Amino acid sequence: MTSFKGILLNKSDAGFSAGVADIAQDRLPEEGNVVVRIAYSTINYKDALAITDNAPVVRKWPMVAGIDGAGVVESSSHVAWKPGDKVILNGFGVGENHWGCLAQYAKLNGDWLVRLPDAFSFKQAMAIGTAGYTAMLCCLALERHGVKHGQGEILVTGASGGVGSIALSILSSWGYEVVASTGKMHEAEYLKTLGAKEIIGRAGLSVTNKPLQKERWAGVVDSVGSHTLVNACAQTKYRGVVAACGLAQGADFPATVMPFILRGVVLAGVDSVYQPLDTRMDAWARLATDLDRAKLDFITSTIKLGEAIDQSAAVLAGKVRGRLVVDVNA
User: Fold this and answer.
1) Is-same-fold flag (3-116+294-327; 130-269)?
2) pLDDT per position as a tens digit, 187-207
3) 193: exposed, middle or buried (C-beta count within 10 Å: 0-12, 13-18, 19+)?
4) What is the distance between the alpha carbons of residues 181 and 204, in angstroms, rounded to a whole number?
5) I want to staple 288 with a disulfide (CB 3.0 to 4.6 A). Which of 73, 119, 249, 323 is the partner?
6) Which residues face 21 on adjacent strands?
7) Are 62 and 14 in contact (CB under 8 A)?
8) 84 phi-psi bin (left φ>0, alpha ψ -120 to 50, beta other)
9) Partner residues linked to 71 by β-bridges
10) Which helix (H) or strand (E) covers residue 309, if one does?
11) How many other CB atoms sit within 10 Å of the CB of residue 20?
């Protein structure tokens, strides 16, 4: 095979372009040491920003999009990997600084790869993707900081999105009482199916409010940021924990220190891009044992590579629920 299909992003004095292109295989980045034949990729929020050029996600041009991929090792000069191994890639600047996985082939650093758990198919792994892996990291942050059953409700913001949907599913399976916040109240039945005991609109959380409010949440998983994160912190109980991982509303944090110095609230930042290998392996192991496959299938839609560009705009417009898996060979 001398060429492969991928979503190629370009920016020059003539402007920005994104499209499915035939890419010569000898253009794969020289710095990679494992060639992976990609089976499936996915569209995360960051992918959508890159593909639509709505934020300066991409650092080098041209760029093949896709921060996630799952597939089979075709060739390797890395000691840990051999042809035929099944692997997952999440993050590490792929799709930003290094050619990504919304393509039929990717050449990657073997240190970035995680072995595909036996419990998952390639498609299921990408139904999880960075969004689901991040959701597990957030849930583990609540667990690590001591949030226990019976201490109160857990709030999940942006609940109908990828991170929110999987966090909701995980937390409800762990036995927590989970409240889902969403701007899509028509998705109430969807969220209840995933385990939400109550659905609240996002409006009350997304505006300026008092720096300290009535205590309600024992823990929070927030993928929204801005005023939503501020209000979530202001409503968190004494010694409660807020895991923050996203900025769908905004990257600003117009808050005071009051929840942290008067209630001892813990604000736990969750990064998924550069987590060490042992943390990644732990998160994927917990996903393999704790994530309900039926719920994962329920939140997942599959699209072809050529549909990924239009669907990226839909993701940013809030018109997509759950997870989008991309069959890069379709």
Assistant:
1) no
2) 999 999 999 999 999 998 999
3) middle
4) 10
5) 119
6) 6
7) no
8) left
9) 38, 87
10) helix 308-316
11) 18
> Which tokens belong to 7?
């979503």
Which two structure tokens, joined as six digits, stand for 26?
């000898």
Rounded Cα gap, residues 62 and 184, in angstroms? 36
Q: How would residue 1 be classed by pLDDT, with cut points 50, 70 and 90?
A: low
Domain ranges of the chain: 3-116+294-327, 130-269
Name the one residue in this structure whose structure tokens are 């968190």: 236
The pLDDT value given to residue 31: 87
Stretch 153-161: mean pLDDT, rounded?
96
- Give the C-alpha separation, 317 to 197, whole Å: 26
Please indicate, yes or no, whether the overall pTM of this predicted structure exceeds 0.90.
Answer: yes
Q: What is the homologous superfamily of the domain 3-116+294-327 according to CATH?
A: Medium-chain alcohol dehydrogenases, catalytic domain (3.90.180.10)
CA atoms within 13 A on the CB side of 141: 25
CA 19, CA 309: separation in Å to the nearest integer?
Answer: 7
Q: How confident is the model at residue 318 (pLDDT cuts 50, 70, 90)?
A: confident
Contact between residue 162 and residue 323 where contact means Cβ atoms under 8 Å apart? yes
Q: How far apart are CA 209 and CA 225, in angstroms?
A: 15
Q: What percent of the chain has pLDDT above 90?
A: 95
CA distance 286 to 283: 5
What string of DSSP letters covers 252-287?
-----SHHHHHS--EEEE---SS--HHHHHHHHHHH
C-beta separation of 23 from 1 below 8 A? no
Q: What DSSP designation does 117 have? A: P
Whether CATH 3.40.50.720 fits 130-269:
yes
